[in-house]
């Protein structure tokens, strides 16, 4: 009897629990339905009675943005156009003719044809001015107009007429649109006989493959140590981040883990492959624009004492978004989890005040210091952690470097020169006149150009005069103080005209304070206990 009573009791409890759950579910659904009905009512009343005509689409989009405004800064809504652009950036390709361009004096000016694209293969050159597209005048086009007309379905044809200043004539090109790769690797080069340098600008679908190719290429050229530049890299795909970290972290070590409200978003990512790059001294450059997936890589390298982190404290974005595409091709990215470095550090900064969240990045100042034992954060409220070999580090506010180096400070005059795009426009005119003799003198020898080329005094005077013509007020003292840096930046623009990004970076790195400091630290990087020997 007692056993039978217990069985009856269990059955009753199960039935009662199911009933309560059913009723609770109905209550929740009814509550949701009531709120949805309320929103629908307000939308219809607004459409019907508002004093001016309104777009229901705009109202709904604004309502979604308003709802997300109360959540974290990285849960966002993307319109169909924004979603398309975002997909292109992170999928790593789009269909078009393959040029980088700027609008200068209402004219589409080719900055550079993209390597391997239809424009480069057809013979379009830096400095060409696009004056007609499909026989229609395109003077006065906006950036959006250019993208709309030159991009299109792969395999379709477009006719482009360019004016070439060096030849002083128009040239017609018939181009077939192709898939154009958006590279994650800006440049990979050998800075000296043993030091490799790679600049990574995003974590897209192609990042791991691109980086592997670059690493292998540099290894073939004698690379024995590496500076990986993640400055101003805003992040991207988490999966790509842990795969990039896997190039440098050995065995089956933990690289990153995530925690969300739902168990399905709790994941751990481990190193799994064996690479020869686990054995080379490594330095990672970071700054306040280094965010998200970039911080995963920097955090893992720091936690395992695998390499040195040099530069400024990173952005501090440690939230994982799930993209969800909506029926009208718009999308939402909803934060589903937080990510943590191997030591358990949370990277995300406080975002309770969204205005301060972004202002803090702009206003932040740091003192240059040897911060290997992370004394710079000792007075902060951030939680203390330990690297795998016992060094003190801190969580909750981005990745603080092992060596803090602020970038070079720009004078007001230099800022105005950049804002008015004076450098590029001056060099564009300079190359229109001098590209042929420069190519005859230096040929394909970037090394000779780096060693011998200098702008003369008359060139610099012409530059100041040109800047004044572009409404940049002359400041003799600030120009004199920054003259060497200005001349070096002009040289970099000229080098980019001739050797693309390899020329640009090869010149700029020689005056880059953060890079120069990193370059001196390889003796320290070689001693890191996480470096596999």
Uncertain runs with pLDDT below 50, 5 residues or more?
Answer: 6-28
CATH architecture of the largest domain: Alpha-Beta Complex
Computed structural class: alpha+beta
CATH topology of the largest domain: 2-enoyl-CoA Hydratase, Chain A, domain 1
Anisotropy-based shape: globular
Radius of gyration: 28 Å
Q: Could you give a short account of the major beta sheet? A: 7 strands, mixed
CATH class category name of the largest domain: Alpha Beta
The CATH superfamily of the largest domain is known as 2-enoyl-CoA Hydratase, Chain A, domain 1
Distance between the termini: 73 Å
Number of strands: 22
Q: Fraction of residues in helices?
A: 40-55%
Overview of this structure, please?
The strands form five sheets. A seven-stranded mixed β-sheet has the order 10-11-12-15-16-22-19, with helices on both faces. Strands 3, 4, 5, 6, 7 and 8 form a six-stranded antiparallel β-sheet that branches. Strands 1, 13, 14, 17 and 18 form a five-stranded antiparallel β-sheet that branches. Helices cover about 40% and strands about 20% of the residues. It is α+β, with helices and mostly antiparallel strands. The chain has helices spanning about 1-50, 55-70, 80-90, 120, 145-150, 205-220, 240-245, 295-305, 355-365, 410-420, 420-440, 445-450, 455-470, 475-480, 485-510, 515-520, 520-525, and strands at about 75-80, 95, 100-105, 105-115, 130-135, 135, 155-165, 170-175, 180, 185-190, 195-200, 225-230, 255-260, 265-270, 280-285, 310, 320-325, 330-340, 370, 385, 390-395, 405. The protein folds into four domains: about 1-55; about 95-180, Roll (Pdz3 Domain), CATH 2.30.42.10; about 185-320 and about 340-405, 2-enoyl-CoA Hydratase, Chain A, domain 1 (Alpha-Beta Complex), CATH 3.90.226; about 410-510, no CATH class. The chain has 17 helices and 22 strands. The longest helix is centred in the N-terminal third of the chain and has 48 residues, at about 1-50. The radius of gyration is 28 Å and the shape is globular. It starts with a helix and ends in an 8-residue tail after the last helix. Helix 7 (about 240-245) packs parallel to helix 8 and helix 11 (about 420-440) crosses helix 15.
């Amino acid at each position: 009897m007692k056993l039978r009573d217990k069985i009856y009791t269990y059955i009753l409890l199960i039935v009662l629990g199911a009933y309560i759950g059913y009723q609770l579910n109905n209550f929740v659904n009814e509550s949701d339905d009531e709120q949805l009905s309320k929103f629908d009512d307000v939308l219809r009343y607004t459409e019907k009675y508002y004093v001016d005509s309104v777009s229901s689409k705009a109202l709904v989009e604004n309502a979604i943005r308003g709802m997300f405004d109360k959540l974290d800064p990285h849960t966002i809504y993307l319109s169909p156009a924004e979603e398309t652009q975002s997909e292109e950036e992170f999928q790593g390709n789009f269909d078009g003719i393959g040029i980088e361009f700027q609008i200068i004096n209402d004219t589409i000016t080719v900055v550079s044809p993209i390597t391997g694209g239809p424009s480069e293969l057809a013979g379009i050159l830096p400095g060409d001015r696009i004056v007609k597209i499909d026989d229609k005048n395109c003077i006065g086009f906006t950036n959006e107009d250019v993208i709309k007309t030159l991009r299109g379905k792969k395999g379709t044809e477009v006719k482009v007429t360019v004016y070439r200043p060096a030849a002083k004539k128009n040239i017609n090109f018939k181009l077939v649109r192709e898939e154009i790769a958006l590279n994650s690797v800006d440049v990979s080069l050998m800075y000296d006989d043993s030091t490799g340098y790679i600049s990574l600008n995003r974590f897209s679908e192609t990042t791991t493959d691109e980086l592997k190719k670059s690493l292998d290429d540099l290894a073939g050229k004698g690379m024995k140590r590496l500076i990986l530049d993640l400055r101003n890299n805003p992040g991207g795909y988490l999966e790509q981040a842990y795969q990039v970290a896997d190039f440098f972290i050995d065995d089956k070590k933990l690289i990153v883990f995530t925690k969300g409200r739902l168990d399905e978003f709790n994941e751990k990512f481990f190193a799994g492959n064996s690479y020869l790059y686990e054995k080379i001294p490594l330095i990672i450059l970071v700054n306040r624009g280094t965010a998200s997936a970039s911080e995963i890589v920097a955090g893992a390298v720091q936690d395992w004492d695998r390499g040195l982190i040099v530069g400024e404290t990173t952005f501090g974005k440690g939230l994982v978004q799930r993209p969800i595409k909506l029926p009208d091709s718009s999308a939402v990215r909803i934060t589903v989890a937080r990510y943590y470095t191997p030591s358990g550090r949370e990277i995300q900064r406080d975002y309770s005040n969204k205005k301060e969240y972004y202002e803090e990045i702009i206003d932040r100042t740091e003192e240059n210091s040897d911060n290997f034992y992370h004394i710079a954060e000792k007075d902060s409220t951030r939680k203390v952690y330990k690297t795998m070999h016992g060094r003190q580090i801190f969580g909750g506010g981005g990745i603080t470097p092992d060596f803090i180096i602020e970038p070079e400070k720009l004078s007001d005059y230099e800022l105005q020169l950049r804002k008015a795009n004076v450098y590029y426009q001056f060099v564009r005119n300079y190359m229109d006149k001098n590209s042929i003799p420069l190519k005859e003198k230096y040929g394909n020898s970037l090394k000779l150009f780096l060693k011998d080329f200098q702008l003369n005094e008359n060139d610099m005077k012409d530059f100041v005069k040109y800047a004044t013509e572009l409404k940049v007020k002359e400041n003799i003292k600030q120009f004199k103080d920054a003259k060497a840096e200005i001349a070096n930046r002009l040289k970099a623009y000229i080098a980019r005209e001739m050797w693309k990004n390899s020329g640009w970076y090869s010149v700029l790195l020689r005056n880059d304070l953060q890079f120069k400091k990193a370059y001196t630290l390889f003796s320290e990087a070689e001693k890191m206990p996480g470096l596999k020997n």
